Amino acid sequence: MIIVSVFFLLLVNSAFCAAVESRQVCVVKDPIASVWSTPREVRGPFRYPLVPSWLPAVAQAHEGAVSLATHDSQLLYGEHVTILKNCGSMYKVAIPSQCSFDGKTAQPAVGYVQKKHLVRCAMSADLATWVVQTIKAPVAIPRQKRFLPFGAIIQTGGVDFVGDDHVAITLLSGKRGKIHLDDVRYVLSVVEDASSLREAVCINAKKFLGVPYCWGGRSPFFGRIGRVPVSNYLVPSGVDCSGFISLLMHSVGLMVPRNSGAQYLFANPVDPAAMEPGDVFYMGPTGMGYPRHILMYCGYGMVIEAAGGDGAASCVCLSSVEKRFGRPLAALENGMDIVSAGRGRAFKLYCGSFFRDPVTLQQMRTNFLANIGQNANAENVY
User: Fold this and answer.
1) Across 142-212, where does the E strand assignment appear?
2) N or C: which end of the chain has fewer CB atoms below 10 A?
3) What are the pLDDT digits (tens) for 157-209?
């Protein structure tokens, strides 16, 4: 009976979606938009944070019914998508800025987003691009105030300073306002030197300390979407491990794959003894293929991660390499088995970097700008 019901729902979902004649490019107009794996999102209410559907015992302990959908990821204000199908209250979309990677080619992620979060955009060349650098950046608008989340993208027709410390912007709603220069980073077409990017990524990472772990999460933002709190059950706030890392790269104008397995394939291998701030550790259960978890090295023998479950604190936390892996950095080797602190299970450990190859670094910047600007359909080339 359960199998028949599942088949029926899948059949309904297939019939529910209608192809879009031309692939329209849209932009996210709300602070956060959840990305779901089917056009039927999870029904609530749920306890916070949202739990993945592959934990049925945990999910059943929550109030409400769980549909077939899972919370795959999140889009942030200003990110572009390509509409693939019209699915009632949702669109099936391609997300070029959140790609997969098989070691050779990159493909845009595909998921379902509520229509109310999107607006059609008339994209233009020669736009100045800014990325929000604070958890909750205030935008001053006459007689009111709005907030944009960390990682939100703002594009302007030029750089129009207001006083000594603000820049003028126009929101997607058409309202004009200003945002403090300390809250945004200007993204140049030519990538900066790797050392300054490493420093910026590590500074930004520490802003997330204490932010809750959330499966599929890419934002710690707490605020409101219209009258609905962003932290309500159907718009979870927080980050997962790979969402955290990809968002940090995004914050300095670099595009990397969305998920940990693809990030592992994309990064350059690094010897643990040569690790620098901004480089990453990968962990995965032995004998299970690609690593399932990613952490960032912050220098001075410290690592930061979005940790969830298995006896760990379910939030972004900072710890020493020795405490996390049971031995100091100098004693680590790629491919070695370790018993992770607080988990009691053996993991394979690998190290990698997104900053070692200057050519790839520039391509990451080029891809970032191509996928949030006029070329939202552009193929990612690595």
Assistant:
1) 144-149, 153-156, 161-162, 166-170, 176-180, 184-186
2) N
3) 778 888 889 999 989 888 899 999 999 999 999 999 999 999 999 999 999 99
Output the six-digit token pair for 198.
Answer: 């490493």
Cα dihedral sign for 372, 241, 110, 15?
negative
Which of 306, 347, 300, 356 is CA-nearest to residue 328?
300
Strands 161-162 and 336-339, how do they pair? unpaired
| Position 211, amino acid | V
How far is residue 27's CA from residue 78's CA, in Å, rounded to a whole number?
6
| Start and end residues for every CATH 3.90.1720.10 domain found in the chain | 194-353
Cβ partners under 8 Å of residue 22, min gap 6 = none
Are 354 and 364 a contacting pair, CB within 8 Å? yes
C-alpha 138/C-alpha 304 separation (Å) is 27
Provide, rounded to the nearest whole percent, the portion of the chain with pLDDT above 90.
Answer: 52
C-alpha span between 31 and 146 (Å, rounded): 10
DSSP string, 129-154: EEEE-SSEEEEEETTEEEEEETT-EE
CATH 3.90.1720.10 is right for the domain spanning 194-353: yes
What b/e string do you get for 144-155 counting C-beta neighbours within 10 Å, with b at 16 or more?
eebbbbbbbbbb
Which structure tokens are listed for 100? 């997969």
Q: Is 30 left (phi over 0), alpha (psi -120 to 50) or beta?
A: beta
| pLDDT confidence of residue 157 | 78
Token readout for 166 is 């603000």
Question: Tell me: the pLDDT tens digits for 251-279?
Answer: 999 999 999 989 999 999 999 999 999 99
Start-end of CATH 2.30.30.40 domains in the chain:
128-188
Residue 155 has pLDDT above 80, yes or no: yes
pLDDT tens figures, 313-334: 689 999 999 999 989 999 999 9
- Report the CATH superfamily, name and number, of domain 128-188: SH3 Domains (2.30.30.40)
Across 189-203, 215-229, 335-349, which has the greatest mean pLDDT? 189-203
